[in-house]
Each structure stands twice: as structure tokens, then as C-alpha cells.
Design brief:
heterodimer; A: mainly alpha; ABC transporter involved in vitamin B12 uptake, BtuC; two-stranded antiparallel sheet; 14 helices; B: alpha/beta; Rossmann fold; 7-stranded parallel beta sheet; about 45% helix; about 20% strand; elongated
Amino acid sequence: MSSATPDGIALRPRRQINFQALGIYIAAIVLFIVLGLLNPNFLTAGNLRDVAVSASVNAIIGIGLTFVIITGGIDLSVGAIASFVGIVSATLMVNGGIPPAMGLIAGIILGIVCGAVNGLLITKLRLPPFIATLGTMSVFQGCAYVATNGKPVYDVPKEFVLLLNSYVVGIPVVVIVVAVVAVGAGLLLRKTVFGQNVIAVGGSEETAWLSGVRVHRVKIAVYCLAGGLSALGGLVIVARINAAQPDAGSPYQLTAIAAAVIGGANLMGGEGRIAGTLVGAVILGALTNGLVLLNVPSFYEQIVTGLVVLIAVSLDQGSKGWPMLKRSNKKDLTAAPPTASTSAVRS
Amino acid sequence: MKIRTLGVALAGGAALVLLAGCTATPDGDTGSATGSAGSIVSLVDASKTTKVDDVTAELGKPSAPDKAKLCYVTRTLSNEFWGYERDGFEKRAKELGVDFQTFDVTDESSITEQLDKAKSAMNQGCSALLASPISATGLDSVFESALADGIPAIVLNDAKSSVPGVVYVGPDATTIGATAADYIAEKLPDGGKVAMIEGDPGSSNAINRGDGFTKQIATHPNLQIVASQTASWDQTKAQEIATTMLTANPDIKAFYSQNDGMALGVQAAIDAKGLTGKVLLVGTDGIPQAKKQIASGGFTATVSELPTTEGSTGVDVALWLLAGKKVPGWVDVPAFVIDSANVAEYPTGMP
């Protein structure tokens, strides 16, 4: 089996500036300017730093999800994995006495194992990703409660908190972690055979398989990646709140998906950008922070966040729908046969 | 392409401007930090616990300093309990003519969201920070930096903070559970089987109420806890669990529910089994619906807290501290039992 990228799949349009991607950056910049105009406290260095920190967990988990979404899958269990890992790592450190660095590593390994479970269910048992991870979401969340009989773990070692929740020359460590993860993920997706295979699987599983891509392996790997990064996100949460709560990760299972989707990840597969997901997470963080500064009650905040997701996705769809609409109109007029390759070629 | 880009930008911007426009609020001056670092901490006597009435009698009605703004970071307002806590806070602040702002979060698992909002609030400027943390240690970092800047930090209800200098205004959750146990013991002199419906397993209220109840029941040898399950503060779940418990143990004599919402579910289960009035039902919180049930003979009792009092006391404590007065580390707002004997005294809202 050759692992080379099959040339039958054109992965990206050649040297074409992706205006859709630009749109999200411009939207983010406008959002920052508007929030800054409405409340001068928004654009202060301290506040922007807080926005970055609050976006970090969504960014970390969202990046893992981006890989999953590119393969055409979804992982609903990311928040539960974050909760589960947080509580297990904290218990190991507080009651097991293992050093913080080991706690971190053990947590990430556990996250990868959880991801592997998802991947195996999806590939070997052929469960649809939505169903498989809906089930494991409940299982992992239950495990998080069982681990400590539902009790939070307090008195997390100071060193662990410093590891993920301190500042290096004024820059929060989590922001550095996010940057490292994002650069690594970007290189993995765009510069490696694995990344090409991920995109190929999302473009058309069948074509990828026919071209020699080991589809199952690729899929299991992306769920492991998502699990590992969810674990990292869960550990950041522990460091931020000085405690492990058995349900602290659950708000992130949907917001991380939202971050990826705002950033242009296509739930139909084949498409997604690491930088886009980062911007998506920052937009969500800025909205939470900015709407607080503007004194918007949280119920409205949910409405705004939902609208932002809808606007982002409809733009995403719109950008594809328009040319397709034209094509289908033409098709109706000329009765041209549908081109089978279209869906596989688009990325 | 350009048009679309512009569209995103405009739509986003317009939505925000609209939102900002339609939420006119008491937006005031940013807080003025009175006092220097550490001075607030020295005003708080951490070892001292005083009943709220005694503190108020001693320190009197506070006066509002110029240009002060009080910030209250609450929990989800979809739980009416926090709504009453907020009402007490806002009403007292208005009464004393001091600027205020309330911040709330999505739901009971929004722990990091609450942390982010507390930080945003502080960035915006607060002269005092009041909060009801979801996780006992979740807001510690914000409290520490507030106190370091000479800004009073006050916890309203539920989770006492371990940060020195933070004032706690609220009841002892363990006592609430114990009060319920003693009440059941008093009403069941012949003893019998007892069941408990627990709240969300991770929440400190559930843990402390449960501990208090279990330990106090153990002091009454003729009472046995035969079943104890979590319904995660959910009424429907509580109904299902209580039904199952009654099927398994038809001779259960009393239920203790860790909040009133779940107790309403237990009530439905008891009614469905035709046991209305034959099984004791003690809830917690004292929400209006629970009091209606008590008046109509459904619930036996509820261990009521005083969220409105806590909210308004929080304002007083903040202003006392800003005025340089010494306050106890724990302003005790004890919970009390409401049953058919005194339910008429509390017709609306929560005390």
C-alpha cells in the first residue's frame, strides 16, 4: 500500500486566495473594533490577555475537532473527556502523589485512549460518529463522576497550576501552549502525508481508500488526536479553577464545535482550517468578554453566540451554494449530465 | 467576494450595536480603589462568625461613597434562587444609591465561563466584588487580585472561599442537612425508613447538605436511610427516582430532597402512589412553589434559606469594608424551617 497522496484528488484550489477565510478574520477585527468603541476597557492589554486565556480551551479542543470534522466525522465526547481527564489527573496528583508533569502526561494518555475508543467504535463497529460519540460522551461523563464519587478534587498542586496557568514575561502560558498546538497542527495538516490523508478521507472516503489511504487508521488517529487535545483542554480547566470538577468540561463540547465551524470547518468533511478554528475560538471568547463589558445578560449572550454560528455557517454554505446554484440552473436549462467527480474534487 | 466580506463585518457590527443599544443599564464610573493593598484583608476577622442581625445592629446602615460600583457575579438566573439573591443585591444597592452591575452565567456547569466573566467585570472596574462561585475554588485567583488591589471580595451563599480576606455571607450548608434530619426525627418519634434525593454530585451544596443530613440521621438510631440517589437538581429525574424508591421500599416514611425543585418531583411520585400526606417530604430552599405546596398539604416542610437577605447584606458588607469598618469573616444567615405552622408568614418571594 502506498501512502503517497493520491493524485486523483485535488486537495486545494491552486494559489487562490481563500476569501472565505479572509472574511472570518475581517469579521473578528470588526468585532474587536466595535467592542473597543462601545467600551474603552475592552481593548486594554489586560483585558485582551483575558480574552486570549478564555479562548484557549475552545482553541485547544477545537483544533483536535477540526481534524475530526475534516474527515467528515464529529466528536461529541470532547467535553466529557476533558472532565474525565481533569478529575483523574487531579486525583492522581492529589491523592496518588504523582508529580505534576507526570499528571499532565498521564492525563493526555488517558485522553488519547478515550479517543481511540471513539475511533475503534466508528471504524471497527461502523457506528456513525454522531452516535458513537453520543454514547461515549455519556460513558466518559459517567466515568468522571464515578472516579471520585462525584466529588470535586481540590488542593491541586501549586506546581501544576503554575505549569498551565501562569505568565511568562506577561504572556499567559496557556496562550503559548495554544500557539504551539496550533503551529504543530497546522504543519501536521498541511505539510505531512498524514494531513493529506486526513483531507483525502474527508473529500471522499471511497476514493481515498481506492488510492491506498488506510482510511481506518487515519480515522482512529484523528479521534486520538481529538481525545489528546481534549485532555489538554481539561487540564487547562483544572489549572484555571484550582480544582477538578466532574462536569467542568461539559460546556466545551458544543462551543468547541462552534469554534471550528465559525472558522470554516465543514461538517460534511474535506474542509477545515486550524487558523480559522483559532479565530473562531477568539471570536467566541471576545463575545463572552465583550458582552459582559456591555452588560448584556447571559441569556442574550447565548442568542448572539448562536447567531454568530448561524451567520458563519450560512456564509460558509453560501460561498459554495452560489456557484452550485448557477451550475444547477444551467443544468436544468441544458439538461447536462451531472458530473460525478465534482464532489470529490472540491475540498 | 468583497461584498460578502463586507457583509460579515457589517452584520457582526450591526448586531452588536443593536444589542448594546437595547440593554440600557446602570453603567457608571469605573470603580475607585479605596485603600491600599492588604488593607481590606486586615479589616476581615477570618476567625469570627456573627449572625447577620447582630452585624447589622452593630455596624448600622452603610452610606454609599462617591463613585463606587458594586459588581455581583452570580450563577445561572434560570434557577430562581439566584434570581432572589440578585434581587436582594440590586434592591439594596438602589436603596443606598450606589452603582451596581450583575453578571450571570449560562448554567450550573459554566465554571470557566464564570471565571472569565469575573475577570471581565474586574477589567471594567469594580469597587467591590461579590460572587456566588459555582466551584469552591473557581474564582480564587480573581479574589486574590481584587484584594491585592484593595477591593473587597464577598462570597454570597454556598461555597466559602479559602482565600484570606474574603467575607462569606450565607448559611452553613451542613447545618441545613442536619436541620432537615432533626425535623424528620421530631415528626417521626417512632422512627422508620428515610430516603434522600441528592443534587448534582459535584456541587458543594449537594455534598454539604448530604453530609449534614447523613450524620445527623445517624444520631437518631430509629431512623435508617434506605435509599439515597442523585437526581442532579432535576425535577423529572427526582420523580422517577422517588417512584422507584417507593416501589422498592413501600414503607419509606420520609423523603429529604436537597432542593425544592426535586422535591416537587418527589411530591408527584408520592401522589401517584396514593401516599399523599402519609409520607413526610422535606425540601430545601423555600421557593414560592414549595410554600404553596406546604399550604395545600403537599410538602411537609422546607428548610428555607434567605437569598434576598444575603444579597442585600452583601451590599452592606461591601460598603462597610469600603468605609474601613471591621467585619467578621462569616456573616451567618442561618436557614430555618418553614412548615404548615409558619408558612402564612412568607406569602411571596423569598426572604
